[in-house]
Write a structure and sequence with these properties.
By secondary structure, this protein is α+β, with helices and mostly antiparallel strands. The chain has one domain. It is built from one helix and four strands; from the N terminus they run ββββα. The longest helix has 13 residues. The chain starts with 10 loop residues before the first strand and ends with a helix.
Length: 62
């Protein structure tokens, strides 16, 4: 999945064991569906938790 606000998506790398053996692994973004108010309209977006936290901070300050 991909965050529709910031564009964060999965990343690839290697899991390195104690014996230094490299195996492929991936890190996925923590993406959740959420209802956000954008330009005065409620929209349902797939958003990462970092963007969701930022949006909540912005609405509480306003």
């Amino acid at each position: 999945m991909k965050c529709e606000l910031c564009g964060k998506s999965l990343q690839f790398g290697h899991a390195v064991s104690h014996s230094k053996r490299h195996t492929n692994r991936r890190w996925t973004a923590n993406v959740h569906p959420a209802h956000l108010i954008i330009d005065g309209q409620s929209k349902r977006l797939n958003v990462c938790t970092r963007c969701l936290r930022t949006q909540n901070k912005a609405t509480k300050a306003a």
